[in-house]
Please model this.
Amino acid sequence: AIRMTQSPSSFFASTGDRVTITCRASQGISSYLAWYQQKPGKAPKLLIYAASTLQSGVPSRFSGSGSGTDFTLTISCLQSEDFATYYCQQYYSYPLTFGGGTKVEIK
Amino acid sequence: QVQLQESGPGLVRPSETLSLTCTVSGGSISSYYWSWIRQPPGKGLEWIGYISYSGSTNYNPSLKSRVTISVDTSKNQFSLKLNSVTAADTAVYYCARGGGNSGLIDYWGQGTLVTVSS
Model:
C-alpha cells in the first residue's frame, strides 16, 4: 500500500495567516491526490482533487500543488471557519490511503 | 445533490458481525462506485472497500478476510458487513461515493459511530 505522510501533524495559526501543509507519498502517484477538510463531528469535505483542481464551491483561498511524491495545500488567508483537520488521500492505486491528518488550531 | 445516510446498530458485541446500510438519495446508485471508510475515535481515515452498481468489489487487504459489501439497486442502497469484530473495529463508519477507475471520494454520508463492546 502507498503510505501518505503529512506534516506537520498540528500547528497553531492566526486568522489572516498564510498556511501550508505538506503531504508526501511513499511512491509516485502522478497527480492522483485529493485534499479534505474535516471539522469535529462532521464528515470530511472534498477541497481539492487532481492535486490542484478546486472542488466546486470551495473558496479560492485554498490551493494545491505538486505531483509525483510531494504535494502541498495552501490557505492564502486563514479564516475562522478554516480551523479544522486536513487530510490528503491518494487515488493512484488500491487500497486508497490517507495521510494522518494536520490539525490547524487557533493561536 | 447526492446525499448518503448510514443506518445500523450503534453497538455490536465482540466476535459478532457489524452490519450497516447506506441509502443514497438525490441521484441513482447506478453508474457510480460506492465506498465504505472508517475512522476510529481521534484517529485517521481508513478505506474499507468499494462496490459498483453492478456488484463488482474491491476490499482493503487489511480487512478483506472479514468484509463483504453488497448493493441493492432497487432500493438505492449498499451495505457493509464486517464479521468477527473486536474493540479495534470501534469507529465512525462513513459511506461515500467513489471508487472504481477513479478512487476520488466526492460525497460522504454524515457517519455513524459503531462501538464494539460486551
